[in-house]
Amino acid sequence: CEPGPVQGLSTQVYARKDCKRPGALTSSGALCLMTKKRRSHLKLREYRASDCPELTRLFYDTVHSVCAGEYTPEQLDAWADGRPDLKAWARSLSAHDTLVAEEEGRILGFGDMTAEGYLDRLFVHREAQGRGIASALCAALEGRCSAPEFTVHASKTARTFFQSRGYQVVREQQVERRGVLLANFVMTRPASEGTKKNKRLF
What confidence tens digit (pLDDT) does each residue in 151-163 have? Predict the structure, then answer.
């Protein structure tokens, strides 16, 4: 997607008193990253070339931990074998609109979207699950994109998350990775006024 305004993108985001749950919108339209019981020093920023090796490690660790309940060890190894092509990753992340979630210098998640609205990757560190980080990344990427519709090929693990964001399953499919078949779901969601509203939050 074409990068939108990034003023404030790297500023710290704190919990608000009217946060009901991470990832939800407050009564004033702000995005909750934490409930009022905890303060977050999380920030979203644009991708830097130096991030690439750490993002590939986060991808591997997340696939082999968070997704382990839905896929076999053979499938996990085919999906993420621990030997990434860093040049290919760097080209892809640089070509897409890529955002990184960081807390006190530690990368906790990342996501990237094409100009056509295809959400290519969205991964959050296994120790940072349930904090609204995926929702924050997804909302920011959608808000910065001018495509009329968003598309994702969601894993079995991520399907419920995307359904909660209004994505609908178009079809289930089998994709081949290193000779091994893995199931995922083609899901779409039209861009909405709510998505456009999020553009001003980051």
Answer: 999 999 999 999 9
CB 162 within 8 A of CB 118: no
Distance between CA 166 and CA 122 in Å, rounded? 16
Closest CA relative to residue 190, chosen from 164, 173, 168, 172: 168
Strands across the sheet containing 42-46: 42-46, 97-103, 106-113, 118-124, 149-155, 180-190, 168-177
Residue 111: φ, ψ to 5°: -155, 155
Q: Are 100 and 44 in contact (CB under 8 A)?
A: yes
pLDDT in tens, 6-62: 434 443 444 444 455 554 544 444 445 554 445 568 899 999 999 999 999 999 999
DSSP state of 32: P
The one-character DSSP state at 127 is G
